[in-house]
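Notes from hallway chat w/ T.B., transcribed later so I don't forget. T.B. wanted the structure written out for a chain they're using in a teaching module, and asked if we could keep both sequence and structure tokens in one place. Agreed to drop them here.
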Amino acid sequence: MGEPFYSGKPPPSRWLQVLALLLVLALVGVGWFAYRRVRSVNEDGAFPTPAITPLGSPSGTTARAESSIYDHAFSPTACPYRPVSVAHSADRAKLYGNLAVIAGADADLRELSYTEPVETRNLTTAQFKAKLKRSTIPRNEKTREFQRVYGEVLELLRVIPEADDYQELVTDVTTTQIAGFYDPEKKKVFVPGSVTDPSPLDEFVLSHELEHALADQVLGLPIEDSSAAIESDRQFAARALVEGDAQLTSIFYAINNMSQEELAGIASDPTVAEASDLEIPHVLERGISFPYEEGLNFVCFLYGRGGWKEVNRAYRRPPNSTAEIIFPERYGKVEPPADPADPKAPKGWRLVELSASGALDLLTLFEAPNGEVTAEPSGVVDRVRRWNGGEFGIWSDDKGRAAFTITAIDEPDLGGASPTPHMCVQMQLWFAQNYPEAAELDTGNVAIQGRDLGDAIALLRCTIDKPDIVFAVAPDKRTALALVGVKPVSIAP
């Protein structure tokens, strides 16, 4: 632990020095759209720490970070840093131990007090990776079947290449993108590396994870217990609050306690290099970064409005949706999202999973139609401003085939000061961009757009005079029509 590289309030340039080394790249979970946490696969309830990458990494995170973090979360007015007068010298570390010093610094910075010591499990890198890999292995036949169907759905959505093995992708991402995690059930922090003599990366990771433990002890983590296989949009929004809180605390920790040389040591750590080398589909990378980047932006909004007390209040009243994370000004001022009508099961099909989806899910699709990032994030985010509820359904038949539905509700009152087009218009634009080579299907119905994907049929039903939007992909026309709520005769042969 070196001497902090400033005294008093750090100038804006110091923020950029820290940010250039602490850009997030971490696995939050794998699930809806390949990034919602599939509960039966990953560590139940675990809160991982980012494997940090420097700006300019090939992961694709850089462009969005410059807009969502630099321009918003880290302006001096959004997250004004308040230094604490606590000495964290090498002598104190020798006297109390590095772990105690990091935990104490977190408590001082976060203005909370631990109620009991935090148990920290220090594993070798090999042990840590083995533990992460075990967490991705399906635990039973039902889970394996869900993974298979889910992989097919992601391919039909064009968010992962058809050649990619979904299970292998999950394992690769999990074992390379997690640098540590807090288990709220066991109340333990698990980290690779050294606790007694931590590297700069170990130190930052410990600060992040110990803050999770601190918040859990004092505030309670606002993550609901659920038997659902996929984390809902509301739960993912709560996770963004928790991760954004830990991010802000650990960044404050780095500014207050780490030297420029130590920050440079983070960027050169082999763990960071390994995380940077893995090419991740945009849909995975988006969900990996969202709780840390937009979550940080959300927490900075609260912190700028009322300091840590305002952040603490959010734990008692977590955000209702990822829309409130993306548009923090909505938090506490809008009603919870509406509940769309559930699609009816086609004959011979069963519902595998139905989960509340959110503005983030559509935003991720809009950012990368056909799996390719095509626009600057700042130009895309307004396209989900009128989102007011949605669901994602996964279906399977007795032949083992997969189908899925995405529903959304448009609310013009959420459009903001500048008029924003109907969500139907936004979905129609994405629909055309996502399946550019697919033959158009004559539906005989102006409310329905269709594409013949060769091995499946994609349908989008919506009009600008109604709030409901339904998108479905199924192996045949009859099933796809049933899922969007239309009789089969509506499509010409």
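Follow-up for T.B.: Residues 1-43, 52-77, 85-96 have pLDDT under 50 and may be disordered. Might be a good example for the class.
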